[in-house]
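INPUT
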Amino acid sequence: MILRRSAGALAFGAVWAVAAWLLWRSSLPAYHLPHVDEHGLFPGSVLHRAQHYSRVIRLFWIGQTVTQLVVLGLFARYGVRWTRESAAGPIGTGMLLGMVGFALVWAAELPFSVLEVWWRHRYGLSGSYVDATIGNWFALGAKFVALCVALVIAMGFARVRRIGDRWWLPAAPAFVGIATLLAFVSPWLLGGRTFHAPYVPKLERVERVHVPVKVLSGFSEPNAFSTGLGPSQRVFLWKPITEGAFTPPLDRFVLAHELGHLAHNHIWKSIAWYALFALPLAFLLSLAARRRGGMGLPEAVPLVVFVYVVLQLAVLPLRNVASRHMEAEADWSALRATHDPATGSRLFRLFAGQTLEDPNPPWWDYVFLENHPTLMQRIEMTRYYRSYVRSHNHR
Amino acid sequence: MHEPHPVGLLVEDDYRRNRLTVAFRLILAIPHFIWFFLWTIWVVLTSIVNWFICLVTGRPPRWFHGLMCGYVRYQVHLSAYIYLVGNPYPGFMGEAGEYPIDVRLPEDPVKQSRWKILLRLFLTIPALIVGAALAGSTGGNVSGGSSGRRSRTTGFNGGGALLLVCGVLGWFASLGRGRMPKGLRDAGAYSIGYTAQTSAYLLLVTDRYPNADPTEMLVSVTDRPPRHPVRVVGDPYDLRRSRVTVFFRLLLAIPHLIWLALWGIVVLLASIVQWFVTLFRGTPARGLHRFISAYVRYRLHVSAFLLLVANPFPGFTGSPSVYPLDLELEGPQRQSRWKTGFRIVLVIPAFLVDTALSGALVASAFLTWFYALVKGSAPWGLRNLSAYALRYDAQTNAYLYLVTDRYPHASPLEGEDVPTE
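OUTPUT
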């Protein structure tokens, strides 16, 4: 029995590793980034401001994470008492318990959200106390819906007698299916007005991606993202990135980066990475649930929610590695499409001043919090591109 | 069980209405409006003096007490007349026992807590909110002079949601039949009774807080209506509320609201099929009846949870006998084809009453939220007012979706079996 399980685990590990290797493959060359000193790139005042600002933001993150773990730990221990507040069946009661757990976390994290707004205001960044409290409240509602759907799937399968504790086998694909559906549908729900610029058609031709480019209002920071699958693919630019200090060449570089994501199928790859993590995580959750009688019982939910959050935290570094790899490929794609490393470098330097992102964060921040390459890595990438082009032209 | 409220409603109305006076009721009431306006100004001024004296002595002087009682009673008589809760033309002095819709008030001034006197205006705010939802800003037609520093008067304010709807619908019914329907009369009387309690509290006639429980207000002064096939059952003393789930109640209800909306779409389609079946067969299809009944029950459960009328998180199937506030529904019965054919039109008056009651329900939930967060329980009166509103909503839905052809009964009292001879 043990031998069979070990062989199964080994086979699964091998398949997982092969899949991860396939997903890891990219158009990035085997590169080695040249070292650049940040003090030579950023004025001392900008660097100091960004570092000081980020240092406290990191403390808030630690505080929030510890609070979340403590609250959910206590909830895992004592949360079962809320079953008496339910007249629903096991699945409905499980949903109630899950929602109450998240609600308690929300309440405990609220001071950090408010403090973060206060800290942002100190540095002249935008932030609203209403958004941090009431806005967060609505975000919590959306989280509740997602949680309930997940619990309905997991508990629903677990309560099927023939499936039982193997609920994670059908549940993981179901989660992936929902994630795919959301990725497909969400671009149509976001709206936005069409972005017009003379360089858009040329960039699309170079990147071989023809998708609508939209501008979203209601944001106070410069940002952009690409999303969607097949016919729903879109690039969204947050309004601040199309105005002020962001000149057309900078916007062109941003757009090239986002089109690069779509050109290299990063949305599909993100879903695939999600799928790769979903199966083992769901399995580990099923192990945790067995300690409380199995996932089919509401009593298991508080513990499962706690274990889920711990596992999410544990795999965060791995997910960030995958995400950073895709971002680097999109940067590389933008450099190849624009042939303008100087603009790329200027854009990343501007980010440090505008968003107060630390160009060179400490290692643990890099591991846990950075799902993009650091600003220094991105600037180094532009330098590397220069030498890469030079050496290839020379050949 | 607690002591009866010192301000009690008295009803000796026989439902008969004179069509002529009904038709011209508002015009006939003009002298009363003028008189009431003048009286209100006088009461506002004197209530300030009364407040200061009460603050010092702990009880209102007898003369002031008599004046305030007369004013509250006159307000009841006039409201009842305008909104067709009573038939005869009222007197101008608010005399006790002169009108079929009357109130019992404390004969003598009573000792009151000075703290409550000091804070009376602020303490009255929740009651004013409920009163506004039932009958206008403070009482049927009146408003209030306050005994605080910032006395105000709004005079005649045109009535509030429930009382106004009862008055308008009652006007048509009384013109047509020469009788006021019992349900509308009772609902109107309840609204007037509650606002009389609020006025009495505000004007320092009593320091007992208004009690929104409709049963306590009416059960001893009027008959119960006949038993309705759609009945709400539950323990009115089930008042415990979990503070955590109360605080997050709106968010916790989101999955239910989504499910309710999805189920509602299917029920709408099913009820169209049911309409044809009932029209041709005269009896609804059993399977559809069961399906729609479960939806109506589930809707009640979700509303009860969302609006803090009950505590536990409800199930998603609308199963009977699992929720503390439940709905009893009868199986498919033979229905009148005429009523079935015109159901969508016939339901309109019930919808108006239902909408008016929804205002009271929301106001009640809003206040209960704060109360439950502090005390960990729901106030008894508001809980029972909400249960009444939910019962009417369930009866309206059951009527609309062809679960029954018995019209919703607006009386705040739950029905009882009519004894057979």
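end of record. Chain A touches chain B through 23 residues (CB under 8 Å).
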